[in-house]
User: Fold this.
Amino acid sequence: MGKVYETITPHLTTFIEKQKLFFVSTAPLSADGSVNISPKGLDSLRILDDTTVAYIDLTGSGAETIAHLKENQRITFLFCAFDGPPKLVRLYGKGEVFERATPEFEELKALFPNYLSARSIIKVKLNRISDACGYTVPLYEFKENRDTMKKWVDNKGEQALVEYRELKNKTSIDGLTAFEGE
Assistant:
């Protein structure tokens, strides 16, 4: 059944890199705050070393992950095998948010495709790595990545994305500071 690892092993690296979808979960410190789970797809995750990962964060309708990480740094990743043998991998850690135009964003962005909608890069130092059976996860067949984000971004253009982030990504649903702007 489940096992805890000191590092991301080569076997876990292969599993993680194969996944077309992963989830990140964060929560504010407030007991009344909203727990957030966000799906992530496209080519957005990189394993930087055996205890550090990063993903490129694209403009979206909210900015809960950013706000929670700025408040308390806690984040968990979940990778599910939707094909092949059943398996779950969870990565727990402390994350940092590097917004556009910061030196860290500029340094890390070369690791990812050039997404016009990129608003930050989340870098996470892992403090727990585990797997589990995943026996109840259904089998799904990957068809293709959606092109909806690309069409939306192409239709908006760069300046409209800046304005959108200013309007929609400044605070979390609980009022925490999120995206600070460009």
Summary: The first helix runs from residue 10 to 18. The first strand starts at residue 3 and ends at 5. The chain has a mean pLDDT of 96. The chain has five helices and eight strands.
